[in-house]
Amino acid sequence: MQIRHFVFSLTLSSLLTASAFAAPGAQDRVYTADQNTNTVSVINPATNRLLGQIKLGNQRPDVLSPLYKGEINVHGLGFSPDHKTLIAISNGSNSVAFIDTATNKVKGITYIGRSPHEGFFTADGREVWAVVRGENYISVIDPLTFKEKKRIETTVGPGMVQFLPSGKLAFVVSSFNPVVDVIDMKSHKVIKHIKVVSPFSPFLQFTPDFKEMWMTHKDAGKVTRIDTASLEVKGVIDTGFITNHLAFAKTAAGTRVYVTIGGENVVKVYTTDAMPTLVATIPTGALPHGIWTSDDGTRLYVGLENGDAVDVIDSASNKVIARVPVGQAPQALVYVSNAVPHGDGITNLVPSANSEPINIALKPAAGEAKGFVVARNLGVVDSLEVSLFKLRPQTVYSVYVTGQATPVASFKTNPMGMANGTAIGPMRDVSNSLNSKAVTASRVLVMEGDVAADPQKTVLSSAP
């Protein structure tokens, strides 16, 4: 019997926090939030080696049992100003996990409202603010007692929050509305709504001098700049298909912003002038998502959502110099300096068990439709994660693998003509164990409607 399961998610992540500027060292750590394996991967940036993983839950589909106890969809990350505590946000289990960076041990877990996305410590370290994207508020948590203290009302669907170092203002982007909320941190009230160009922003970041806030628009492929003094939009940059996260780095050539463009498998590098200029395009692995800069600005670490790895970029040459395997579907990524002041920092870590994914590009028979598929082995079952774009809105599409009479999955597009989800089941019966040769020999076909597979009538398909 074929098993079908669809997992819909909006994706994730993090902000640059000022700290001592030093080259990547053995006591520093890079962390990724691995959504499918429900782990936090731990990397030593001095060696670019995976040390192991912090297990917060079971990998899909083990989370489907009504008796399952663990975190689901580990997605967002943040850390305390003293770098002693890492927080991991799981949007499927509505939780904030507090992790000791020296021991990799979970100190406490706070369960909050529906579908939190990101969480961060305030500048003084006394509170954690977690945006509850499935509702209309920020959950304020005491990081010592792990108790929710209060809720701050926002525009519906807050996607991320970050703070000016003065402790006076917080900025909140939205996942469902074209607006940025500015919160007075003393009164905990929204004092201004700043209109922006699209309703879906997963990420914001301040320039190193905190004079501007830059935010990504994943749906529109743009980046907006906001002046933090005047609280007005300063400009908009067209960046590219699936603009995910961004990070700033101070380089010999000046301050640069690095933007992950998931739909093009690149990181684009811009100046931060009044009129930003594209100065480099860096090829990466599949679907770059989270990104963070080392304290000295020499390295940038990029989570590959469909590559299950982290690419390391040298900011002097703007080239990828290393790739480190991590858990499945990394979302947020953070760099935490001096996270482990003493010892090797490998206690309470488990080894990574996932294999390398297989990425399959989908090309249109005609028109501007786009799509891609990721095939992953999950042990006793397998998964096909399907993402479709620029199709007919509110329309059902069937996904087939050649050699199978029935569709692997069916999806209905949203009003923007997009659909994504995961089909989980015994796929190895379909594609001969989902090894790379079998997938290459097979084809993925996308048909409009609930119709039989026909290579001559496909809307999207992989290469024959």
Describe this structure in words.
It contains 2 helices and 36 strands. It has an 8-stranded antiparallel beta sheet. A 4-stranded antiparallel beta sheet has the order 3-2-1-28, with no helix packed on it. Helix content is 2%, strand content 48%. It is mainly beta.
Summarize the helices and strands and which ones pair or pack.
Blueprint: E1 29-34, E2 39-44, E3 49-55, E4 74-79, E5 85-90, E6 95-100, E7 105-111, E8 116-121, E9 128-132, E10 137-142, E11 147-153, E12 158-163, E13 169-174, E14 179-184, E15 189-195, E16 203-206, E17 212-217, E18 222-227, E19 232-238, E20 243-251, E21 254-261, E22 266-271, E23 278-283, E24 288-293, E25 299-304, E26 309-314, E27 319-325, E28 330-336, E29 358-364, E30 370-377, E31 382-389, E32 396-401, E33 409-412, E34 419-425, H1 428-431, H2 436-441, E35 444-448, E36 460-461
Antiparallel strand pairs: 1-2, 1-28, 2-3, 4-5, 5-6, 6-7, 8-9, 9-10, 10-11, 12-13, 13-14, 14-15, 16-17, 17-18, 18-19, 20-21, 21-22, 22-23, 24-25, 25-26, 26-27, 29-30, 29-36, 30-31, 31-34, 32-33, 32-35, 35-36
